[in-house]
Amino acid sequence: MRTVITADRLLTPDQSIANPVVVIEDGVIVRMDSRADAGIPSGKNLDFDGHTLVPAFFDIHIHGSAGHDVMEATPEAFSTVGKFLGQHGVGAYLATTVTAPMDTTLKSLAGIASLIGQETEGARPLGIHIEGPFLSPHKKGAHPAALLLTPSVALFDRLWQAAEGKIRLMTIAPELPNAEEVIAHAAGLGVRVSMGHSNADTAAARAGIRAGAVTATHTYNAMRSFDHRDPGLLGEVLANDDLFAELICDGLHVHPDAVRIYWKSKGPKRAMLITDAMSAAGMPDGNYKLGELDVRVVNGKCVIGEDTLAGSTLTLDRALRNFAEFTGAAIDDVSKLASRNPARMTGFEAEAGSLAVGRAADITVLSAKNEVVETILRGRCLVSA
User: Fold this and answer.
1) Is the whole-model pTM more than 0.70?
2) Which of 316, 296, 322, 291 has the alpha carbon at shortest distance from 308?
């Protein structure tokens, strides 16, 4: 069946098309241009008058949602998470683990790996992001200190083998013993290495980059505080024009003024929006699990202990709207932070992050207020289905 989508605007990575016509056949875009060029062909027409078409979002740091954690590694959990993400404009994601006993982590990685590539109605897991166990005990955040491990190539290889080589992103504290060796080894296998949960000084951060690190995990959070005599990892993240960097833009993790500093530093080519969402996303306040951690959610804020943040209940469409509000940036740029940039950083440019003829029809439809009104994945409408 041929589906013809029309709207007010379409944003590709490099241009904006007014009054676009997108023709989809068998879930693939076969034509994408302006109706002024060749009119509207026959087919099932979906008209989104007054709306903007953007590439479906790609969340590279998400632990779960809708009552499920990705470490459950079951078809039910991934189906539920995928559908929830799809309803919020997400077409792809990296299933993100949290520090847990090694046996538990290995079992989860094996289960997640078996689910990657399977057919699903909602957002697709393209790979795995391991957040832990190679983290600093001084900046552990919600990760249990007793389960953190000193990095080693042998330990990484156990994780890699359990995941069937489907680890695409790894968070590591670059100041830890053996970290540089592990970073170089992982990068050589195609893993994108992210510096985070780290107390690194400037020298250690730069050593991590020389070893192969290309990005930073949730900028500002679980990082050594900025000091004008030793800017540390945060200073390197903000000053290094080549480094990608994540941001949780929920108004809780990072103050709007700090968001503006981040935007001025990273700009539209290196900034990336993530959610760091856990199973409580889309659920009422209460008690939930992040991996094996007990987390309580009060007024949408996820905490363990007295007041330690433990993930979020953020959705990527909400993060996009917050970012636009906090910075004044246009949707043309902000949409890239949730699509093109994470795809470029992870090397999944062929699977996510842009719209073009010959690619899967993974499209998010935004209102004038940047709210998701429809998500079209592989040519199928998800929100109105």
Assistant:
1) yes
2) 296
